[in-house]
Amino acid sequence: MRRLVLAVCFVALFAGCGTFVGDSPPPSDERAVAAVEEANSTVATVKAYRFGMDMHVTASDGEQPRTVRVDGEGAVNVSEKRMQATTRMQDQTVESFVDGYKAYQGCQEPWDGYGVENVSRSEPWATATPLHRQVLLFERSNVYWRGNETLDGNRTVLVTASPSAETIESLMNRRQAGDMALNRGSLENATARLWLDPETNRPVKSELRLQISQRGATATATITLRYTDFDEPTKISVPPEVYDDPYELGCPGAS
Description:
- It contains five helices and twelve strands.
- The chain has 255 residues and is α+β, with helices and mostly antiparallel strands.
- Strands 7-8-9-10-11-1-2-3-4-5-6-12 form a twelve-stranded mixed beta sheet, covered by helices on one side.
- A hairpin with a 5-residue loop joins strand 1 and strand 2 (66-77).
- Helix 2 packs antiparallel against helix 3 (130-139).
């Protein structure tokens, strides 16, 4: 079941989710389309940012349900093509780094060291990072204007999305999809929301509510991502041991 919880983490950070329903979603609102286009233009010029993640997951394999709290944070330097992220789940902490077109993830016991895999070159590098991928999700989906909403005492604009399963698949690279054995039937009953700063058009928060079914187990999760420190000095240092004979094709036991 821990593997299923980690699958939720990867979907939340790197793919994003929407509503999977049998009927076609209604057409997009013009006002929402304009807001997403403005956000996309703004995000395209971002050179660096930081993000925080908080997630509450309830998973069940037909026996006693298990509730897990996951939190983490990270930083992205688009100019240098580097990203660092830390994810904590109970007594487990996972450090990961992206340096150029190589992604490194800390391996869990009994394995030491890091696994390394390639980052896709088929799209701009930044689209592999949480903020840019969330905006891309909305750009490729039907979107809806929900009006002004106060967030932490500040006025924001709320937009929601209804992406198709095909859109989700297009935003998950082959490595992530293979490791987590996700398919269209795995993701269901999900929603996506994006809060924008009306003054700068920058995203300040995204929230995903989703269900995943995998290998006889199910998990429901609420994931919140917050984005801060846009274009602030962001130095990302990758520890030397990350490059010390990493496991090719990812950590042992990850597939």
